[in-house]
Amino acid sequence: MEERSRRRRASLLDPRSAAGQVFFLQVVIVVLLVLAGVTAMVLQTARDAVQRGRRESVIAAQSFASAPGTAAALRSPDPTAVLQPRAEEARKRTGVDFVVAMNTAGIRYTYPYPGEIGKKFVGTIAPALRGRTVVEQAGGPPLPAGAGTAVQAVVPVTDARGEVVGLVSAGITVRNVAALWLPQLPIIVGSGAAALALSTAGTTLVARRLRRQTHGMAPAELAQLYEHHDAVLHAVREGVLITGADGRLLLANDEARRLLGLPADVRGRPVRELGLPESITHLLSSPESVTDEVHLAGDHLLAVNKRLTYAPDGADGAAGTAGGTGSVVTLRDTTELAAVSGRAEVARERLKLLYEAGVAIGTTLDVGRTAQELADVTTPQFADLVTVDLLDAVVRGWEPTAEGWRHLRRAAIGGDRRMVPVHQLGEVITFTHRAPQMRTLQERRAMLEADLRQAHGWREQDPERARKALEAGLRSLMTVPLRARNVPLGVVNFYRTADSPAFQPEDLSFAEELAARAALAIDNARRYTREHAMAVTLQRSLLPRAQPDQEALEVAWRYLPAEAGVGGDWFDVIPLPGARVALVMGDVVGHGLHAAATMGRLRTAVHNFATLDLPVDEVLGNLDDLVLRMDNEESAGDAAEDHEGEGVTGATCLYAVYDPVTGVCTMARAGHPEPVVVRPDGTVGCAGVPASTPLGLGGHPFETAELSLPEGSQLVLYTDGLVEDRGHDIDVGMERLRRALDGSGRRTPEETCQAVIDALEPSHSFDDIALLTARTRMFPPSRVAEWDVPSDPAVVPSVRARCRERLREWGLEEAGFATELILSELVTNAIRYGSPPVGVRLVHGRCLICEVSDGSGTSPRLRRAATTDEGGRGLFLVAQFAQRWGTRYTARGKVIWTEQALCDGMAAAAGHAPIDFLLDQFDDPGA
């Protein structure tokens, strides 16, 4: 309430409002009246006071002058002594300010202040000396009442003879007289305050009434509102009628008069006398509201809305107006609106379809999927049946040529294909030169066949199929070229049946817009398909194509490229001497051709290092140096700008060597995920390989781990794309891998790979996935012979004898001569040039392996001995009789190994070297 009162007072005091201006005018008038009254009262009181002072002064002066003894006292020797007391007593008794007795010369005998006695009287005394009374205003010495102008009277004092013997003057100061009007001042001010209060109350009441009548708007706002109302009412393209409660027309704007044919002077006339159609007359006279009713008035089809201006009886609990209800009626001409709305609705639907096409087409980089999206998004909103025919080169990702225009492949079908007989998906269609599709490709423009019954070129393409299509209800066709970057890709065919309106020429532009958007997406998919196929071909050419011939492991693998392109994942299975096998799993950072090329270089390097039979940690160390050199090459000059994947190469790698004789697997990893081991009983665990830094950092050693694997164990190697995903971290992926491998002890490596891929393959792969599963095998002890050899050349014959005996047990008597010769030469060299201990091991596998070890780190070297040399022919003989030979280093020295093929061709191979030639080279059996 207080806030509301403050707002009301603020509105009342607002000088911009009419009430505020009236209020301030009344305040000014009241203040002026109060000031004028006070001024008049002061002036009147002052004049009355002067008149009163004149009378009192005269009376006091005459009374003192005519008092007995006054004349005698004036003639006495000391008039002051006699008259001063009398004058003071008379002054106090009469209430005047002074009574002065003086001689005829004007010298004072009395005065309220004795110091002024004897001085000249200030005033006019000449008339008084002639017997007259003088009343005047004059200033004089100070008086007890204070300084000021005195109203004084001067009268003569006569003796018995009538002779003037002296003068008497009495006076009152104006200041004291002014105190007479002060008691009347509160009355005047109170009257002004009462008048001001009445004006405030009156102004408040008037302001409230004005606010109710003007809804709180100022006169300027009312005038502006009226101007806007009048302008809008007569300029709006909608008729407005306002009727009163008595059924008379209060207002009709220009549009209403035009629509209803009303004259200009209709205001105030009853509605029923306007000559309107009966339906509109009844609508205007009824007490009901109406929303968007359509009525015919002459040539106009009007949409009518009616709202009541007063609430009817009982509405909202309030009583209605006694005289009924008024109404406001609006009229809108919809004669042309229907046609315009139809066109607008079609345009809106087309824009909506274009938007949906922009969102739905090109969601993937698959040519067939993109074509199907075009067919799906345009049926049934635009066409009843849609087919997309692409050049065969486009489907394959190749660059299209004009030679292949006649052969198009059906890439997509939209709509109910059972409704109309059409070519099936994937079918190659050969179009005639008169077919609309071929004309569209050649002329590079859309073709419209509004009535397929008259389309001779279309019917000639396949008369039997065309007949069935017409019988099924096919009636209209639009063929639009699919072109992107000025390259033809194919055509899209829009069909409509007899149940839909035939295509019109204005539909061509919309169809071309759809086709242009789809063609760009299809061309992007084609280019991606080509580049992706090239990259995948390159990468697959760098990966193993077939399993190598080896007996140590049963191997299976899977490689899944990423959706976004190929990466740098690779794996390898490399047979090593001594029936051992190396397993490699690596991952190059990045994607694309550069990553694939880098992967090929690293895989080749691993092959070379494996050929040297280096320890696993040295292999990774050499790879680390290679990656560093590759990074330096990439950083030099502007080489990094010429390919995808700028920056440091970076790679991870796992290198493992499995020995089927001992069952030991030696592994090292450079930043690569740890392998998983599945024991024969099905238990799953990590291999426990220490983690080392990725390749390319340099200066860090690589730790190795030796793991003893029972026969039938499975070693699972993989890249991080298998266990890492954007939706979860690697720990979740590792747990899912362990669950997928549970119970895999009896599975084959092929089954294990498939089970892991089925369980872990993501729906959308953002990284390559490489998986390698190897089941271990072991050579039985019966196929391995191993013994120590004393460091004495005399024991060589006994070594040959033991070798001959073991070969006889294995049924390899035919290989005995060559084997004995090889073993004799290697043992002799180890005893003569090596250092103890010397050992021999024979392994019977897919080939016969001979290994001679000693404690020396010096490697023998094959050379051609001169005819004068006494030695140097031993390794030459070994190389001639062995299929392969080489040296590998161990922690305790080295091993010289040879492999001999166990087949009939071995003897033939040995026979190529003439015996005489070999004997010429053989000088000393111990050489």
TrEMBL record:
Primary location class: membrane
Ranges of residues in domain GAF: 366-532
GO process annotations (BP): phosphorelay signal transduction system
InterPro entries the record matches: Bact_Sigma-Reg, GAF, GAF-like_dom_sf, HATPase_C_sf, HATPase_dom, PAS, PAS-like_dom_sf, PPM-type-like_dom_sf
Highest taxon of the lineage: Bacteria
SMART domains found in the cross-reference section: GAF (SM00065), PAS (SM00091), PP2C_SIG (SM00331)
Localization, UniProt: Cell membrane
Domain PAS: start-end pairs: 227-292
Transmembrane segment boundaries: 21-43
Membrane topology of the entry: Multi-pass membrane protein
PPM-type phosphatase domain boundaries: 553-776
Keyword terms of this UniProt record: ATP-binding, Cell membrane, Hydrolase, Kinase, Membrane, Nucleotide-binding, Phosphoprotein, Transferase, Transmembrane, Transmembrane helix, Two-component regulatory system
GO cellular component: plasma membrane
Record-level Gene Ontology MF annotations: ATP binding; kinase activity; phosphatase activity
Pfam families recorded: GAF_2, HATPase_c_2, sCache_3_2, SpoIIE
Gene3D superfamilies the UniProt entry points to: 3.30.450.40, Histidine kinase-like ATPase, C-terminal domain, PAS domain, PPM-type phosphatase domain
PANTHER family tied to this protein: STAGE II SPORULATION PROTEIN E, STAGE II SPORULATION PROTEIN E-RELATED
Name assigned to this protein: Histidine kinase
Species annotation: Streptomyces lucensis JCM 4490
